[in-house]
Specification:
Helix content is about 0%, strand content about 45%. The chain has no helices and 10 strands.
Length: about 140
């Protein structure tokens, strides 16, 4: 049985694609997304090296800023995750928890700080991060 994931893919050039994927593997350089274009379903091969991140989402609409509410911070099982703030070259900043990552890996998963977040998890492409800082001690990770 194949599992499908709703994803929002943000690319380095600023484009965004919303669709479904069932072949994303965090160690592979490419995957496919089915998305709507001109009222037709299209399949696009996505090359990881040209993206900022893949957001695995609950829905494609998210929440407007005025609809977001403060909720308990999400805690990772076993309290093993590290809180990290990521800055991309275009200035976009996201924060979350990660179990671990290494500079020589293709990417790493970031989990949202807020349990009410629209994102289940975010796969961040390591080479396309401008800066990553651990929030606790401000030690620069990348």
């Amino acid at each position: 049985m194949q599992l499908s994931n709703k994803v929002v893919i943000k690319f380095l050039d600023g484009t965004v694609i919303k669709g479904i994927t069932n072949d994303f593997i965090p160690t592979k350089d490419t995957f496919h997304v089915i998305h709507r274009d001109d009222d037709k379903d299209m399949i696009k091969e996505v090359h990881v090296n040209v993206m900022k991140a893949v957001f695995f989402v609950r829905d494609f609409y998210g929440k407007k800023e005025d609809e977001k509410h403060t909720s308990a911070l999400l805690k990772l099982p076993g309290n093993v995750g590290k809180r990290v703030t990521i800055t991309f070259p275009d200035g976009e900043v996201i924060s979350g928890y990660t179990y671990s990552f290494k500079n020589d890996e293709l990417g790493f998963f970031l989990f949202p700080l807020n349990e009410a977040d629209n994102n289940h998890r975010i796969f961040v492409v390591t080479r396309n991060v401008a800066k990553a800082v651990r929030d606790i001690d401000n030690k620069i990770v990348l």
